[in-house]
Design brief:
heterodimer; A: 267 residues; mainly alpha; 2 domains; 8 helices; B: 318 residues; alpha+beta; 7-stranded antiparallel β-sheet; 4-stranded antiparallel β-sheet; 7 helices; 15 strands; 32% helix
């Protein structure tokens, strides 16, 4: 079966989901009850596409930008589905989450769909530990950034998304997702260091991706301490979280692009 | 004063210093050790005092473990930066390494351990495909204190006297030569030619002999096709000769031939393959890793205690 067919189907369903959600929200001022189900179907179709590719190439989606983007769209939707399921009050944030996913899908369609063999150094369980923690980190950070974006937009449109709680509650919620992101970012770095030691004989090398990962981690740590110590106004704090998100997003997707080859260490 | 030094505002300041310290590492050649030291220094003082002064930390076990683990991370970083070593080694077959060939960077307190624990390069096999792409490598290192040789491959590193040896891309040939001076002194040695990977066209080196002031240049001219000594694995070529240039005069020599120079005779015995390694030494990094894992687990436990009991979405503002 053609993996591309499922990828396109997934994109089609998620595009419909977003449009359906937005139109329903604009005209009926509420989200359609089918939104979660549609999102789940889109995620399921993407899962099938990734599994088919995995079977065809005999390795997971880890080796090039096409695979990394596709697997990150998959993990972001999964993380968001968990929030959607466990926190019904936040479901309306899907109106912001889905456009972000569209941008990533558009990017995915522009990236060459080249097949690469899996490097021998990727043949370790630490790959799954490192990447798994990384995906949870990015999922938590995306939710935190979406909540922060709502706080910022509410500075001009104070009645925007009234289903959601007030600014201070949103800030606290955003902060908690930020803490989750910090924890999983730390675990990702530790897992990556162990993998690097096993693969290349050093835990840390200060290559561009490692350096920017450290900068992202420090930005997260600063953001967490900023809230406790200076107790900033929600709008200012939200701006800082968006800044942390941009740094982390560029580290996740930008730096490997600049290096041409995804994180492969020094040798 | 103690309250301020042990407080979270100083932690925030330390983290910001650390963040600012990373940028010079990225944008210039400033050493990471120097650049990150102020941030780490502030955080170390802050942490130590927080553990000693803050009741809230001392009476909460996960929080105390987290802070002690952070302190261990700081100490490990300091020890690491003072004693680490990063360099490379080039080892010909049957050559004994007593010190690294080159240093990329090292801490001020690093003292070489290889003098007391030399290592012998036994044979190696570096496989290539027909297009000249490097495949796997098998190399055997024999530390003098070990009963058996250690196998290193592209994926498997070796620990010799605390140094992590990792195979590098480079390999080439060394000329095995003997120098017999007029006084009858015999010296045997190896002259490493440049890498066959990065400098295949310039296979020559200046040769320095005892008591000889003339400039001597020894070149290795390989006549065999490159593929013949790279495929299926890197080996000594079938056809080659040497060029010895003394001043403005040059002479071609074959294997085993000698040349009389002012002050003695130079005999070219053989060529042997060499392989390159990257070397890394950092005794503190294992502690750093363990302390990091403990810190994350303790922090996770503490946050679960603190946040797990309360509702994530709070209805009441502030």
């Amino acid at each position: 079966m053609n993996e591309l067919l499922f990828l396109w189907l997934s994109l089609g369903v998620i595009l419909f989901t977003g449009l359906f959600g937005w139109i329903s929200y604009i005209f009926k001022e509420r989200l359609p009850s089918q939104l979660g189900g549609l999102l789940f179907i889109s995620w399921g179709l993407l899962t099938v596409a990734l599994i088919l590719r995995w079977i065809r190439l005999d390795h997971g989606p880890f080796t090039n930008m096409f695979e990394i983007l596709a697997s990150n769209i998959w993990s972001l939707i999964l993380c968001y589905l968990l929030v959607f399921w466990k926190m019904p009050r936040l479901r309306v944030t899907s109106l912001i989450f889905l456009p972000l996913i569209y941008i990533m899908y558009a990017w995915l369609l522009m990236v060459p769909r080249t097949d690469f063999p899996m490097p021998s150094t990727y043949n370790t369980a630490w790959l799954y530990v490192h990447i798994g923690f990384g995906k949870i980190f990015m999922g938590a950070l995306v939710v935190s950034a979406i909540l922060s974006l709502i706080i910022i937009v509410r500075q001009w449109l104070d009645k925007w998304l009234p289903e959601l709680p007030g600014e201070y509650s949103l800030q606290e919620l955003s902060y908690r997702f930020l803490i989750l992101a910090l924890l999983f970012d730390s675990l990702m770095l530790i897992g990556g260091a162990i993998w690097a030691q096993q693969a290349w004989g050093r835990y840390w090398f200060w290559d561009s991706l490692e350096t920017w990962s450290f900068i992202s981690w420090l930005s997260l740590a600063v953001a967490v301490h900023l809230k406790i110590t200076l107790k900033p106004e929600p709008s200012y704090y939200a701006l800082f979280i968006i800044f942390v998100f941009i740094i982390s997003f560029l580290t996740f997707f930008g730096i490997p692009f600049l290096n041409q080859i995804p994180h492969k260490g020094a040798i | 004063m103690l309250g301020w030094l042990s407080g979270l505002p100083l932690t925030l300041f330390g983290l910001t210093l650390l963040l600012l310290g990373v940028f010079p590492v990225v944008t210039s050649n400033l050493s990471a050790t120097v650049s990150l030291a102020p941030g780490f220094g502030v955080l170390a003082v802050n942490l130590m005092l927080a553990i000693l002064v803050r009741e809230k930390i001392r009476h909460n076990l996960p929080l105390l473990v987290f802070h002690i683990a952070l302190l261990l991370i700081m100490l490990s970083v300091v020890v690491s930066r003072l004693t680490y070593f990063k360099g490379w080694a080039i080892m010909s077959e049957n050559e004994t390494l007593r010190q690294s060939t080159g240093i990329i960077n090292q801490g001020p307190w690093h003292r070489s351990k290889l003098n007391s624990m030399p290592v012998l390069q036994q044979s190696f096999l570096a496989y290539f495909d027909e297009e000249g792409r490097r495949l796997d490598t098998e190399s055997w290192l024999q530390p003098f204190d070990a009963k058996e040789a250690i196998l290193i491959t592209n994926k498997k590193t070796a620990d010799v006297a605390g140094y992590q040896f990792t195979i590098s891309n480079n390999l080439g040939f060394s000329v095995d030569l003997t120098w017999i001076s007029i006084q009858g002194d015999i010296i045997r040695g190896l002259l490493q030619m440049p890498s066959q990977i990065s400098q295949p066209e310039t296979q020559g080196r200046k040769l320095i002999l005892p008591d000889i002031t003339d400039d001597i240049w020894l070149g290795l001219e390989i006549e065999s096709a490159r593929k013949s000594f790279f495929y299926p694995y890197f080996s000594i070529p079938d056809h080659f000769y040497f060029t010895v240039v003394v001043g403005s005069e040059s002479q071609q020599l074959k294997l085993g031939e000698s040349i009389d120079l002012f002050g003695g005779t130079l005999i070219l015995n053989n060529i042997v393959p060499w392989i390159g390694y990257e070397m890394y030494y950092d005794p503190a990094i294992y502690f750093l890793l363990i302390a990091s894992i403990i810190a994350v687990i303790a922090l996770g436990y503490f946050l679960n205690q603190r946040l797990g009991d309360s509702h994530w979405i709070q209805e009441n503002e502030q």
